[in-house]
Amino acid sequence: MEGWDPNTKSTLTQIPLLTTKAGPRDGAAWTQRLKEEYKALIAYTGMNKSNDNDWFRISAANPEGTRWTGKCWYVYNLLKYEFDLQFDIPVTYPATAPELELPELDGKTHKMYRGGKICLTVHFKPLWAKNCPRFGIAHALCLGLAPWLAAEVPILVDSGMIKHKDDVSTSSDL
Amino acid sequence: MELELKEMLHDLETLRKALPDHPSNQTLINKLQSHVEHVCSLAKSVPVRRSKVKDMSAEVVDSNPYSRLMALQRMGIVENYERIREFSVAIVGIGGVGSVAAEMLTRCGIGRLLLYDYDKVELANMNRLFFRPEQCGMTKTDAAVQTLADINPDVVLESYTLNITTVQGFNTFMSSLKNKAFRSNKDSGGVDLVLSCVDNYEARMVVNQACNELGQTWMESGVSENAVSGHIQLLIPGETACFACAPPLVVASGVDERTLKREGVCAASLPTTMGVVAGLLVQNTLKFLLKFGHVSPYLGYNALKDFFPTMEMKPNPQCSNAACLERQKEYILAKPARDAAAKAKMEAESLSAAEFPLHADNEWNISVVDDSEADKSDAKSSDFLPEGLMRELPTADDFQKPPVSEPTVSSNDDLDELRKQLEALNAA
């Protein structure tokens, strides 16, 4: 964990760790895991809100809790850039991390696999593997998606690959 | 089309007769005629799909697609080549390695191929073999079936356009591997071998999970991101290391947020390395299926030094994959039966060998001592150490059990309640 900024570190320590090692095919154990996922997400979202650092919305898109959809955003130069966020819980979860997708950015950056899956290989996957099964969705967002947005959004904006929604609407309104 | 062209030729002839005999007319008509004849021959050479072949023949004629393969029997390499038609092989990932492996097996006359991929063909794939530019936009599975069915209509092709890492995709993947419709009399599973030709860790773990659960032998293949090395590996659940038995190197290495690669995730690839790895993979597959030569448990390929390391890996008794541990248990339980079979085979071989003493006299009383006994004691316990030696580090054979989750009786342990709580936070 050396090299991570102190803020991320202190946030991470406050997200409850998970204990049940179970994937979507494990029946009752998965339900237990799902409860832990919710608790961690509730704690993390609450913490973000109270620290005025709210930056995502996520909720299960099916009753089994295997597909999740929501939004995430990043503020750069005082402008808020918002993206759709989605991912599936893989069958080998939690041995393998969920592949977080930002479908709107597909094809706009090299740091992405097909379908808008953000690249987590170097900065996040090893951490996930070392901390299996204690890390969950909340940790993936905190340690996987947040640093990716911090690294990529400024480049995407500066290079003109993405435009702020106000700029887009004014130009199309004319 | 042919009929039209014939009529055109006929009309030209009539025209020649009808027109006054002027040289310029004649030259023009001759020219037209030769054009039509050319188009005629082009029309005739439009590819025709060959019809299916019922039995593989060893007859050496130009029209026999299997003569060179059946010659393997005459050369004494393969006992019964035609058995290849009974085999089903599943190929997961129809990319640079998988597509070439599929073509090789198709040309070899494999019985049935199951192809899995969710991706589409792109121009960026054209530095590799198999796919053609006009197939861009098609799913890789459809494009592969199109080409493979043309090459060899005898092969039964099944294509599955799905992502095996999702719950739904995995269920379809599992049931397709279990489907025994192709050979009803088979006592084993629905396929004989699974070839993993995927490009990421997640998908490999999924193939590993499926094969461990089914007890299905599979082969893994891979090409490095820098395109200059690759490997193939044979995985027999319970007998050899599974893909989860040894964690990947990156887990053991330290990481840093700043190592977020600036140049992006585009991996390099070469048609050569991918072709070599596909060749090694299918060679091992043929040896495994048709029972000839030595089937490599692991074969590496370092293109820069042309180095081909081989090794064997035993399963990890502390593997994190529960299905792997079950297969290991079964394998150990089946040991007496295996030993008996091996012994019977040895005896049968020694019986068929010379029964008279090798040497009539033994002046010096030389006797051959069987050293398999010593081997056995070694194999029995890896703890065995010669007298006077001791281990420096303690053994860690007790698997560190993760702390058993205590039934956390908290106030809010209802799933719906938790979901509502998160939604409330999301709405705020």
From TrEMBL, chain A:
Gene3D superfamilies: Ubiquitin Conjugating Enzyme. Signal peptide: none annotated. The active site is at C119. GO terms for biological process: protein K69-linked ufmylation. The keyword NADP does not apply. GO terms for cellular component: cytoplasm. It comes from the Eukaryota. Keywords: Ubl conjugation pathway. GO terms for molecular function: UFM1 conjugating enzyme activity. Transmembrane segments: none annotated. Belongs to the ubiquitin-conjugating enzyme family. UFC1 subfamily. PANTHER family: UBIQUITIN-FOLD MODIFIER-CONJUGATING ENZYME 1. E2-like enzyme which forms an intermediate with UFM1 via a thioester linkage. This is Ubiquitin-fold modifier-conjugating enzyme 1. The lineage of its organism: Eukaryota, Viridiplantae, Streptophyta, Embryophyta, Tracheophyta.
UniProtKB/TrEMBL annotation, chain B:
Residues 370-428 are annotated as: Disordered. InterPro entries: D-isomer_DH_CS1, ThiF/MoeB/HesA, ThiF_NAD_FAD-bd, Ubiquitin-activating_enz. SUPFAM superfamilies: Activating enzymes of the ubiquitin-like proteins (SSF69572). GO terms for molecular function: ATP binding; metal ion binding; UFM1 activating enzyme activity. GO terms for cellular component: cytosol. Residues 66-320 form the THIF-type NAD/FAD binding fold domain. It comes from the Eukaryota. GO terms for biological process: protein ufmylation. Keywords: ATP-binding, Metal-binding, Nucleotide-binding, Ubl conjugation pathway, Zinc. Pfam families: ThiF (PF00899). Belongs to the ubiquitin-activating E1 family. UBA5 subfamily. This is Ubiquitin-like modifier-activating enzyme 5. The lineage of its organism: Eukaryota, Viridiplantae, Streptophyta, Embryophyta, Tracheophyta.
